[in-house]
Automatic annotation (TrEMBL), chains A, B:
The chain crosses the membrane at residues 293-311, 317-337, 369-389, 395-419, 431-449. It is a multi-pass membrane protein. Residues 146-209 form the CBS domain. Homodimer. Acts as a magnesium transporter. The keyword Lyase does not apply. Its main location: membrane. Belongs to the SLC41A transporter family. It comes from Corynebacterium flavescens. This is Magnesium transporter MgtE.
């Protein structure tokens, strides 16, 4: 976004110094410090995100404190947690203290219990109390990600009074742009955008200015709530307890964070792995292996099912070896059709466009889509296999493709909904599992049709 | 987020009326109108998102105009485009006029040229001009998604003057929370958050209050810029032309929109389909088929490669039918390993954590990860196949798994980077293509090892 030609060379120089394994002599250190001081914040963050924790800690230590705090604050919670080990106690405590209460809690969630405990104890009383409020809510709930610091705005105040008070207290608030209005018992009665307050006549009471509040419960699902920020075009949403008393605000930056994490997790899981929670280049190699090996083993073991299925039909295969030529094509196409449906429905579920009660409607849609796709592919398969081999094999391939596509689309479409219904993650049931399932079932369909048509 | 027990019945009643195919008699219409008026905006949006365009138009027509505008505004551009056909001209023109200029352009992009033209002509002169500015930038650029309406704030102004002017002009601005400061020639000299302005002493000149601006060029990539909102924690970013003159602001809601669209597209493509650009339940059946059939055909045709590979080894297969039993297991595991790597790297690319110049670093990382995964799976395969079949087959399976995993992880990791380098979409090369590639190559590896070890 800046003038790239001059800046890039700075970044490159920095990266080069950081790549070398030599110990840092004072001259290089001062050169590095000078370079890092010159870089815009954006590029500094990029740079740190691409370093392992030793190097990242080195850069943070070279920066003036206000800049290193800004960089640390911008990092993913996973990378922040990695850095804790590499930084000195005093730096860690200072960084931790500078975070918003809800960001502190998100970082604590990534850390081993004893370190989390030590960090919490390092906070001064008011900061510890306010962090404790957020910590008291369950993981995945709105309460766990909300900002507990809210303004004291009452319906009896006039616009001028409210503005004066906000001006005095704004420093302690995460946002002043969305203003929840409460009664003296903290019950939420309305909401006011700062912009409306700012443009209102001085003597207008807030009770006449405020609107009906769109609010959420502290116990509500964080992702579901966060997804509403976009269509409703809101910067923050008031959070209330079960008696509708105001307990915090969920702000747009935390909502965006929640959505990004959820999308990263869904993406990773539908690719058969787990989300990194930190930038790829900064992720240790063994963490990559660890995040993948479990899924890979589970999938490989479940793929033994296909070996089982095939060994049942070993005689058929021996009688017509030509059948084995089409195995990857048929299982692959089944997998692809299933993945298309699963991916589409999983995304729709994540965005809130489809709900579990839509199961039958989705089944009916995907069955029809699958049959149409299967008819097209089956016709093609019939034609090609008849031309290259013979009509009988053409019929086997064509019919199998039709049935496999119909089945895969249907199963792929409803599996994410079934997963959600039983409390599992829909994304997990997306691609790899559907593939394995469609492989085994597709093979059974294939051999039954082959036996019938070819008379083996 | 509201009291669910009372509201849900309203929604259910509405859905029931809307599901019935009967023509709407006046009594039902008035009942429907009453129900729709009672529903909170959030649930009304949800409801419309789940309807086909005929029903959605029906609901919009029953609502008071300010509510129908709010609902229309919240819909995806794809669904808005579908609705244009169903609504009357006067409604369409009114809805279109009520959108922000950049949202108008996003909707126009979804429409056939003649309808887009008619809509543009329906705007009054100032609105048409301001929309024209946005339309002048290329698709996918920041300019195409920015808000061209910016405040006139100069460094010589005092805080009091700036506040007074903002209060007078706020109605025409999309945001007042991020304030770009310009010289009289419109060159950007700094940026000021409203909050700082609000808390500043009355007589302080803006020149002393403003900070160095983080800005972007109108020609910059929209997704790349939008991804920066989260780490930098900003509500809007000033957009400048090549001479650094202020031309607009990219606001957080448009940035969030851009990121959501990009994520939906990536998710869809790695599942081998195209993004819907509208809620699943409102998507016509034939659109679902159309978005999937092309990919499915391309993948099926490329899977003919595996038929080709297997027919080369047909004699080997005939000599040892047992080899065919492991085909789906081996191709499946290769595909899974490749997908894991491709998914991880594609997401890292989307988030900006990995760049194309990291190709060699990624290759080296993924090769090592693949070898470690392959060693684990290969050892398991060796053991199981030796126990169930014999040692020779065990060696074939174990060695194949090791090589297939090493290759798949490496190829899966670098393919997204290669795709980006040649200007293709990394997500496209993610799952389905990698699977097909790994299938064919994996089979070749398998049969070469089998021929060598079993001496066929």
């Amino acid at each position: 976004m800046r003038n790239k030609s001059t800046r890039l060379s700075d970044v490159e120089a920095l990266e080069k110094i950081l790549r070398s394994d030599d110990a840092l002599d004072p001259e290089i250190a001062s050169h590095l410090q000078e370079l890092a001081a010159r870089l815009p914040l954006r590029e500094l963050i990029s740079l740190v995100e691409r370093c392992n924790s030793v190097r990242a800690a080195l850069i943070l230590r070279l920066l003036p404190r206000h800049r290193s705090i800004a960089v640390f604050d911008a990092l993913d919670f996973g990378q922040q947690a990695d850095l804790i080990d590499e930084l000195g106690n005093s730096e860690v405590f200072e960084f931790f203290d500078s975070l918003e209460p809800e960001d502190r809690v998100a970082l604590l969630d990534e850390l081993p219990a004893e370190i989390a405990d030590r960090l919490l104890k390092s906070l001064k009383k008011p900061a510890r109390d306010v962090t404790g409020v957020v910590l008291g809510y369950e993981k995945g709930s709105v309460g766990r990600r909300m900002s507990p610091e809210v303004p004291d705005i009452y319906p009896e105040m006039t616009a001028r009074e409210a503005l004066r008070q906000l001006r005095a207290t704004a420093r302690d608030l995460e946002t002043i742009y969305t203003l929840p209005v409460v009664r003296t018992d903290r019950r939420l009665v309305g909401v006011l955008s700062f912009r409306e307050l700012f443009q209102a006549p001085d003597d207008k009471p807030l009770g006449e200015l405020m609107k009906e509040a769109v609010y959420t419960y502290a116990s509500a699902d964080a992702e579901e709530t966060a997804r509403w920020f976009l269509p409703l075009d809101i910067l923050a949403i008031p959070v209330v307890d079960d008696s509708r008393r105001l307990v915090g605000l969920l702000t747009w930056d935390d909502a965006t964070d929640i959505v990004e994490e959820a999308d990263s997790e869904d993406t990773a899981r539908s690719g058969g792995t787990e989300a990194l929670n930190q930038p790829y280049m900064s992720t240790p190699l063994f963490k990559l292996v660890r995040l993948r090996i479990v899924w890979l083993l589970v999938l490989a073991v479940s793929a033994l099912l296909t070996v089982q299925v095939l060994s049942v039909f070993e005689d058929t295969l021996a009688a017509a070896v030509v059948l084995s030529l089409f195995i990857p094509l048929l299982t692959g196409t089944g997998g692809n059709t299933g993945n298309q449906a699963a991916t589409t429905v999983t995304r729709a579920l994540a965005l809130g466009d489809v709900r579990t009660k839509d199961l039958w409607a989705v089944l009916w849609r995907e069955l029809r889509v699958g049959m149409l796709l299967g008819a097209a592919l089956g016709a093609l398969g019939l034609l090609l296999a008849s031309l290259v081999f013979d009509l009988h094999l053409g019929i086997v391939i064509g019919a199998t493709l039709f049935l496999v596509c119909s089945m895969s689309a249907t199963v792929g479409g409803i599996m994410p909904l079934v997963a959600k219904k039983v409390g599992a993650d829909p994304a997990v049931f997306s691609n790899p599992f559907i593939s394995t399932f469609c492989d085994a079932t597709g093979l059974i369909i294939y051999f039954f049709i082959a036996k019938a048509v070819l008379g083996i």
